[in-house]
Design brief:
- This protein has helices spanning about 1-35, 50-60, 65-80, 110-120, 120-130, 150-155, 175, 195-200, 240-250, and strands at about 85-90, 105, 140-145, 160-165, 180-190, 205-215, 220, 260-265.
- It contains nine helices and eight strands.
- An eight-stranded mixed β-sheet has the order 3-2-1-4-5-8-6-7.
Length: about 270
């Protein structure tokens, strides 16, 4: 047993010596060839700057959350397809529209929004982080314009050049911006500042969809029996004209509320 054990140790010693010699030889070869080239690292997505991060966090906390607003827009896009160019006046820093549609023109005069969109690389990274990977990269423009004046056409493009107009929490957007929507396009509005009622009372528009929240927290778009969503709670508000609703400022409430309304421009 002792002899066998001795032979085993001797064999191990020889193998160790051989391995050591081979390692030393290879080390010399590496030194003679110079330092090995560093391994290429996969490219990392651009980081999001602090200004964009902080303002997005403020928006996300104040106006529900990103996933919720995106889900609302997704429900509309799933029902009314083919929308490519979307105009979003009074957007502040809400870029959830770019997580759904290919191109969005954002408009606002707010100084914080101007700082947000000034960091285009971070805005692109924020959108890409939430946009489904199977969709092409979104494009967007930003304009620090007053969307209640005729000057808006200079910054966003000609009239009738957009497929849809978004009006959320920013006043009577439709009163001055409907002219940018092509015939057959859509106005997607909530009624926070009465704009849904204003659009309903305007000539050349028809209600074609109403977005409602499901019991599970998601959204669904109703496209039938829509008149019931336009019944004012107060009888005295029935039949108010568009101009009267604009002058009212905060709009009117309906007997059956909804999250958003979709109107088609005729």
């Amino acid at each position: 047993m002792s002899c066998a054990h001795t032979v085993l140790r001797s064999s191990r010693s020889k193998r160790a010596a051989a391995v050591g010699t081979a390692f030393a030889t290879e080390t010399k070869k590496k030194k003679s060839r110079g330092a090995l080239a560093p391994t290429a690292q996969p490219s990392q997505p651009p980081s999001i700057g602090k200004v964009v991060q902080n303002l997005w966090a403020r928006h996300d906390g104040k106006h529900r959350n990103c996933d919720d607003r995106t889900a609302l827009f997704e429900s509309v896009a799933g029902t009314f397809g083919g929308l490519k160019r979307v105009l979003y006046p009074g957007s502040w820093v809400d870029v959830t529209a770019s997580m759904v549609w290919p191109h969005v023109a954002y408009v606002d005069t707010d100084k914080h929004a101007a700082r947000f969109f000034a960091d285009a690389t971070s805005v692109d990274a924020l959108i890409a982080a939430h946009r489904p990977p199977d969709r092409a990269a979104a494009t967007w423009t930003w304009s620090a314009s007053d969307y209640n004046t005729a000057k808006l056409a200079v910054s966003v493009g000609p009239e009738r050049s957009f497929d849809a107009l978004l009006s959320f929490y920013a006043g009577p957007i439709s009163a001055t911006c409907t002219r940018f929507v092509r015939q057959g396009g859509y106005i997607i509005a909530n009624n926070s500042h009465g704009d849904a009622g204003i659009v309903a009372a305007s000539k050349g528009t028809v209600l074609v969809g109403v977005v409602q929240r499901n019991h599970d927290g998601g959204y669904a778009v109703a496209t039938e029996d829509l008149d019931r969503f336009m019944v004012p709670k107060k009888a005295k508000n029935a039949g108010l004209t568009r101009d009267a609703l604009v002058a009212l400022g905060n709009g009117i409430t309906f007997t059956e509320p909804a999250e958003a309304y979709v109107f088609q421009v005729c």
